[in-house]
Design a protein that fits this description.
The chain is mostly beta strands. It has two helices and seven strands; from the N terminus they run H-H-E-E-E-E-E-E-E.
């Protein structure tokens, strides 16, 4: 199992998470000239659960909210997608290093059964997209006292 973290660049992966629908190909060749494929790996997502909601935080530096789509499919799948455009190049430009990825990205997550699908909220501020999926309140069993006659 020690190979998996090194293949992922030392970061935690959710490839074994049953709620994640990310496709990950360990043999995907990402060269310095093929930036379109690498953009999907650069949309980092944190998913936390609070007593009230599931909260997804996505790092999207340099993107505007108009360049990002948040959608929910009928089968309880949250999809976050967008595209990072390549910077306009001028004929006289001489690049020394290109590390920022460009291209399309998409992340998909299967939401739990108790998610309120009609109350999902998304906000973007300073390159951080926050998607909040409220949870249905758990109904506590109603206890009714019975009068004992006698």
């Amino acid at each position: 199992m020690s190979l998996i973290p090194s293949l992922l660049g030392g970061r935690r992966s959710n490839i074994f998470d049953p709620f994640s629908l990310d496709s990950w190909d360990p043999f995907m060749n990402v060269s310095s000239t093929d930036r379109e494929t690498s953009a999907i790996a650069n949309a980092r997502v944190d998913w936390k659960e609070t007593p009230e909601a599931h909260v997804f935080s996505v790092e999207l530096p340099g993107l505007k909210k108009e360049e990002v789509k948040v959608e929910v499919e009928d089968d309880r799948v949250l999809q976050i997608s967008g595209e990072r455009s390549r910077e306009h190049e001028h004929k006289d430009d001489k690049w020394h290093r290109v590390e920022r990825s460009t291209g399309k990205f998409m992340r998909r997550f299967r939401l739990p059964e108790k998610a309120k699908m009609d109350k999902i909220n998304a906000a973007m501020e300073n390159g951080l997209l926050t998607v909040t999926v409220p949870k249905e309140e758990e109904k506590k069993p109603e206890v009714k006292s019975i009068q004992i006659s006698g």
